[in-house]
Protein: Alpha-1,4 glucan phosphorylase
Amino acid sequence: MKANWDNIDAQITMQKESLANFFVHYLKFFGGKDRYSASELDVYNALAYTIRDHIIEKWLATKVLYNKSHSKRIYYLSMEYLLGRLFSNNIINLGADKEFREGLKKLGVDWEDYTPWERESALGNGGLGRLAACFLDSMATLNLPAIGYGLRYEYGIFRQDICQGYQVEEPDEWLKFDNIWEMKRIEHTVPVHFGGEVETYHIDGVEKFNWCPSYTVLGIPYDMPVVGYGNNIVNTLRLWSAKVSEEFDLQDFNQGNYIDAVSEKVEGETLTKVLYPDDRTESGRELRFRQQYFFVCCSIQDIMRKFLKESSDFRDFPKKAVIQLNDTHPSISIAELMRILVDEKHLPWDVAWDITRKSFGYTNHTILPEALEKWPVEFFQRHLPRHLQIIYKLNQHFLQEVSVQNPGDNDILRRMSLVEEYPQKKIRMAHLAIIGSTSVNGVSEIHSEILKEQVMPDFYNSFPHKFNNKTNGITPRRWLLQANPSLAKLITEKIGKEWITDLSQLKKLEKYADDKDFRKRFDKIKLENKKKLAKLIEIETGVVVEDDAIFDVQIKRIHEYKRQLMNILHVIHLYCELRDHKNFKDAPQRVFLFAGKAAPGYYMAKMIIKLILNVAKVINNDELIKDKIKVVFIPNYKVSLAETIIPATDISEQISTAGKEASGTGNMKFALNGALTIGTLDGANIEIMNEVGKENIFTFGLDIDEIKAKREGNYEPYQLYSENPNIKKVIDLIQSNFFSLHEPGIFEPICNSLLTQDQYFVFADFNAYMECHEKILQEYKNQKQWTKKAILNVARMGKFSSDRTINEYAADIWKVSPVKPKKGK
Ligand code: 26V
Structure:
């Protein structure tokens, strides 16, 4: 009998109104639970499965829509995605909140009570990974036919515990229970080869190459739905998991090689075991290199398979596909696509290169030299011998062109080469990414300028047309609608709900900055959010803070360039002032809140955490200062924590050394929620200032040119220390072991580094930072003015929606238009 698909498709459709019934079905028949046996986790699972199934119909329909459109596809390649929890986000984006809530009411269930049961997906380190997650949300919301590719790490970023004031890393077992949001797609499994050697042969006198690898790993895809907001679109995030192929094992078993077979299997499956925690330490780097190739190889095969369904003429490839590289992590794709086109599809080299170059875009996310990837040639020789040959040949052709343009200039050849010769032979992945892409973009205006002028000036001179800027953005769905529902509701009440998909609409709020009633409601919402945060602080750290304190917040990865150190030195300074002058008056309590992870091998970052925690202990327990200052470090920073902290914040600390923070995106989340920024003229802070107005942001410190001049001159931090009594007092106090009575001398490395080098100009900016904080305190006293500024910040954040960013990528780089269903369908 032939299946009747019309009937099958129509049999069960999940209307929003019937979601509650499906929930009961799941709890009973899938979970096998009733009132006596169901745990809270069982209820969460049943709720989430219900929502997942509601998504599936839209997911299937989206695939049909895209296939029929024959549109060019966007492939976003990122080794990191910091998705956070998906349950609430999916309900909100589906627009199913009201119906689900009402349906469940009869059953006495409120879905929001169960959200903490979801294990959050944290497959990323920081800004780069969260940006990828915001981009997925925007691409789906904008009807863009995009697929995100990534790795399904068994362990995401480590869990941070604090033990005696030190960071301790624990594994994040996010897959321990079911991951409801993923679907295994075994039928799209792909092989990934490694090692071996390259054979040469000839066809019609033309030299050809055949890579004979030594072992194979399988890539198994797991798909996660990416729900667009209010448009019935569901895109896909495809994450690859490594597995060793069965046949391969069997062969070795049969030959009696049991131990080798098992260890090869473990080796292969280790590939996607763990996310690298932002570490550039040498150990374990080879695994990271193989991880990158595994990712690239799986994704490019999948992209090819999709392309071949549409066309068999590879010259069409750039018309049908555009591949965006999120940093250089997936840049081996360029060599991989060349290998496929030349060795497997037998295209002439020049044709293949033309296709490749037209198909890639590369986004740079950092100018820190230590973070620009270079891979030892040895790694290529061992694992990817054919790719190495291809890179050498690309380099040879490329340098030939460079020398034609710059006759006699050997220095430029050395600078631009894909191969760094000394001290160790390495491949410069950023150079490969630039020559292999049509577009190279930075992530804020200033960062894009620095890229052109300081980091890659030779490349900019050779290919000025490739360089462009795409200022980062954040999704207003997660960072306002979901994280701050009361503020979202107030905004919608005043200006309608268009802002959710067109953030520039927030401009309409400007007029309410002068409306007393609006300001009152705005303040009340902030206070409610602070109450929630105060509770969380008490639960997580045991520190009791006042609900109406000033919340001054720095939450981000711990890096010297982000200068958490300057912040805590300033807190120590305030503490000294309070102790010395006992001038408490009726000043409000100030809570200095920190959160963030340090890379496990980054000693200084870990010591900064220790310093913050030790200072917190002393200050929080000193009765002499009458609770006027509290210092809090909340452990295990993650997306869900940010969602609670940001809406409660008064002051957002964005204080990196000018020129170091490519963009920052936390800065945008805070301002969108009505916090005022204290910031340096760095990254997107500058653009935020231009949007909200100089009078509504607190900027301070040396700008990029001044920092550059200091670096080139002879900067003497020791002199600043001896001449500036404020700095001296703070450093002397630390050195006297006031904060480390039981571990004398532990902060010497921090003090030493500041006194002798101060690479990130903490002392140089200290006074300006202090004065800026004094100004802030004065201004905070005028609540009316403060709230006005906060409202204007919200109203003027339209530019920083990731929808705007993605629209720019789509129009300028990808040349892809939204795919919308035909009217009436
Ligand atoms: C990695 C490393 C490795 C160890 C040495 C120091 C170091 C410093 C930075 C990084 C991160 C590189 C990539 C990254 O996450 N960049 C961030 O990307 C965000 C999204 O574009 C942007 O907002 C942040 O400013 C940028 O730091």
